[in-house]
């Protein structure tokens, strides 16, 4: 039996719809190793007869150095760990493919963006930034969104985040920023959090971070699932078409599932009860055939418009409002296969902003330019030498040949006698490919530059607050309330009062006075009467202006920035808990299960314990989990079927009562059937459009699904505060 056959039988991962005829999957097949039915051997192939006992001098005697089997095994184990990523250490990834909708020949000659029939393999890794490899998924943080496209013209890595801007304008500040946000140096506290003095010290002294910090205090920093986040290339890039014409572009990934987030209490609880929440959902959805999808969007800016905005296109702390440049949707990415091995694929994946292909080029954004250095450098350390692109997950699917040779862990056996160029011994091979309209060698865009060598930031990078104000003004009332709560939580954990004061007076008051005043009141700082000019030199060498909010940005409000406007309008891929207990009305369970399935949502049966449950009709139901093991925070909504038996199941059961109370507190859709509807009164849950009651499943389905599609019952938020956390 071939290893491929064995593999598919074992894991079922080679189902036809997961294969997607991907060149990358076929390429990885060569490296896959399957031990099913095989003998246990040493690394050099000697079969092992006893894997339980060390070779010893006598049964009770000392171990012998001669034992090459024990030595090899333990030595390998001792060397298993490699350095984790210095940032974005915690992550999860999946394979899939990208397909462009229409040829983009007017914009770019990149081959993968010109052939709608072509499925370009991708490997996508999502991550948090601050925490180590073993930290929790649901912490408040930026999420990395790194896409490796294995195109026929080489790998193109779009190494972005789930937020469209960044904390700093110049890469030389990156080590300072990361040192400030990482755990403090004396005690390595806190893990996976920015709620500490060094972070707020740095950002309150760095006004250019104001916009991005506002994003990280928003609900964007606590996504429910990776598939519910947008992705952004952040920097302005260039595209070049076959005629050599260049345009500026911003890359966007739009989740087909819509954008939605956790509530803060939920995020904190999940960090303890299910630290793998995001990676598990990604894994399970793919295993269940419910493939996450994103559409690729482009904001295209003609070269001649470079200077037409009230911000600098090269400044990574600025976004291009969609009201000024709409997002053109150009293709779709589907993730349809989980890795076979976390270390070999996810951990060894080496992303690099500098991996580009003909038809795409960099801009002069100073953050992007610095990244071009950093990513190779970090892989050298992390993956142990310059051959990291030979690792199976990193190899391009197109041929690659050059005269680079040797070094640690070289895999290829380069034939030929000449490893230099020009050469006549090997006929001059491998040879350069002249640039061409298609299939040509890479050519940098011939941008004309006349400049003086200087260490100075452009004055056009000097406005740090207008877009932060734009973001704030674009939020709905609940989103604003969450931002105020997030700043209050974080700054409330800052010990030094002068840091709290500086953040309120010199940063928040320059964004919005309501924000500053409300946060000040929550953290014991005297509310400011007016914005204070930051008492620090900004990177352009001047002190940034204190400004009355709303004075500068040409766009005052951008609906596209509010998550409330980014829902998908359906319940596809949402997770619903169906509570069951002995005597439950099986007809309700079946009806709701079927209705959810039809809409592409996923239901799990949750019982007081993991033991099977007998329905009123006498059938046995196998629960997917217990109320303790799969709490309501793991779901988007809760359904309680009829009837009296369910009421009984809640009597005297604190875990069950808490299940509903917590779902209510977290503003989730709850549907109660038949007699189980009495639970609402018992728990003093006040009626609203997300709390449905009806005779049976059929009676509540419509309202229940509408509430799930809305994701949260925001109107309940004030009332829900009274529910103990
Ligand atoms: Fe970075 C990893 C995204 C600025 C240096 N970065 C890393 C990853 C993502 C980003 C998604 C994880 C890749 C993976 O999954 O393996 N980084 C960004 C974005 C930035 C950004 C969107 C700003 C727009 N990064 C940035 C700067 C520097 C770095 C300015 C250095 C000057 N980033 C790194 C790194 C990492 C990294 C240290 C750690 C692991 C790795 O590269 O492979 O080199």
UniProtKB/TrEMBL annotation:
Its EC number is 1.11.1.6. GO terms for cellular component: cytosol. Residues 23-35, 534-550 have a biased composition (Basic and acidic residues). There is a cross-link at residues 352-375 (3'-histidyl-3-tyrosine (His-Tyr)). The active site is at 88, 161. Residues 41-429 form the Catalase core domain. It is an enzyme of class 1 (oxidoreductase). Keywords: Heme, Hydrogen peroxide, Iron, Metal-binding, Oxidoreductase, Peroxidase. Heme binds at residues 85, 125, 174, 371, 375, 382. Its cofactor is heme. It holds the Pfam family Catalase-rel. It comes from the Bacteria. NCBIfam families: PRK11249.1. This is Catalase. It comes from Halopseudomonas laoshanensis.
């Amino acid at each position: 039996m071939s290893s491929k056959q064995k593999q598919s039988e074992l894991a079922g991962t080679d189902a036809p719809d997961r294969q997607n005829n991907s060149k990358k999957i076929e390429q990885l097949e060569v490296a896959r190793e399957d031990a099913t039915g095989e003998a246990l051997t040493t690394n050099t192939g000697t079969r092992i007869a006893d894997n339980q006992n060390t070779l010893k001098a006598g049964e009770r005697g000392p171990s012998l150095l001669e034992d090459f089997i024990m030595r090899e095994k333990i030595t390998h184990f001792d060397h298993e760990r490699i350095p984790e990523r210095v940032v974005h250490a915690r992550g999860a990834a999946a394979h899939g493919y990208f397909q462009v909708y229409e040829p983009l020949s007017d914009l770019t000659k990149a081959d993968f963006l010109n052939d709608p029939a072509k499925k370009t393999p991708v490997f996508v890794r999502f991550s948090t930034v601050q925490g180590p490899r073993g930290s929790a998924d649901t912490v408040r943080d930026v999420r990395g969104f790194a896409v490796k496209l294995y195109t026929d013209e080489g790998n193109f890595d779009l190494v972005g985040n789930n937020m469209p801007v960044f904390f700093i304008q110049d890469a030389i500040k990156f080590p300072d920023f990361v040192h400030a946000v990482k755990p403090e140096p004396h005690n390595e506290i806190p893990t996976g959090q920015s709620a500490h003095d060094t972070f707020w010290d740095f950002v309150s002294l760095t006004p250019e971070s104001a916009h991005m910090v506002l994003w990280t205090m928003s609900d964007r920093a606590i996504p429910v699932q990776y598939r519910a986040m947008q992705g952004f290339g952040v920097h302005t890039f260039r595209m070049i078409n076959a005629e050599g014409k260049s345009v500026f572009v911003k890359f966007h990934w739009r989740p087909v599932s819509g954008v939605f987030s956790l509530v803060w209490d939920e995020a904190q609880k999940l960090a303890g009860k299910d630290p793998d929440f995001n990676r598990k959902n990604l894994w399970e959805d793919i295993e269940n055939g419910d493939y996450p999808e994103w559409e690729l969007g482009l904001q295209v800016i003609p070269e001649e418009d470079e200077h037409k905005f009230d911000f600098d296109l090269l400044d990574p702390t600025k976004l291009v409002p969609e009201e000024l440049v709409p997002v053109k949707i150009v293709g779709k990415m589907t993730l349809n296969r989980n890795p076979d091995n976390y270390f070999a694929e996810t951990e060894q994946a080496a992303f690099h902003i500098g991996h580009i292909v003909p038809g795409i080029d960099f801009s002069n954004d100073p953050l992007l330019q610095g990244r071009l250095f950093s990513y190779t450098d970090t892989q050298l350390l992390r993956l142990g030498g310059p051959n990291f692109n030979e690792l199976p997950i990193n190899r391009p699917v197109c041929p690659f040949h050059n005269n680079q040779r040797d070094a640690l862990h070289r895999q290829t056996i380069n034939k030929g006698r000449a490893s230099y160029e020009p050469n006549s011994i090997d006929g001059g091979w491998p040879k350069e490919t002249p640039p061409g309209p298609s299939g040509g060698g890479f050519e940098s865009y011939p941008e004309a530059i006349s400049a003086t060598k200087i260490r100075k930031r452009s004055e056009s990078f000097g406005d740090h607050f207008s877009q932060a104000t734009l973001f704030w003004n674009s939020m709905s009332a609940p989103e604003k309330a969450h931002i105020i709560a997030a700043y209050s939580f974080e700054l409330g954990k800052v010990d030094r009062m002068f840091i709290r004061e500086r953040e309120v007076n010199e940063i928040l008051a320059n964004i919005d006075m309501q924000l500053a005043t409300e946060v000040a009141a929550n953290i014991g700082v005297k509310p400011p009467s007016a914005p204070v000019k930051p008492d620090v030199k900004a990177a352009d060498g001047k002190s940034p202006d204190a400004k009355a909010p709303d004075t500068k940005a040409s766009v005052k409000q951008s609906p596209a920035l509010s998550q409330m406007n980014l829902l998908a309008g359906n319940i596809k891929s949402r997770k619903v808990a169906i509570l069951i207990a002995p005597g439950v009305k099986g007809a309700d369970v079946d009806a709701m299960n079927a209705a959810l399935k039809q809409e592409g949502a996923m239901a799990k049966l949750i019982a007081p314990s993991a033991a099977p449950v007998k329905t009123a009709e006498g059938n046995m139901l196998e629960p997917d989990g217990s109320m303790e093991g799969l709490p309501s925070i793991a779901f988007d909504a809760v359904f309680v079927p009829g009837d009296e038996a369910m009421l009984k199941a809640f009597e005297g059961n604190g875990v069950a009562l808490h299940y509903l109370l917590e779902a209510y507190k977290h503003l989730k859709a709850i549907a109660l059937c038949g007699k189980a509807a009495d639970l609402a009164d018992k728990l003093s849950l006040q009626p609203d459009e997300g709390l449905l009651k009806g005779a049976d499943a059929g009676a509540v389905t419509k309202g229940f699904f509408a509430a799930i599609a809305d994701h949260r019952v925001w109107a309940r938020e004030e009332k829900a505060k009274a529910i103990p956390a």
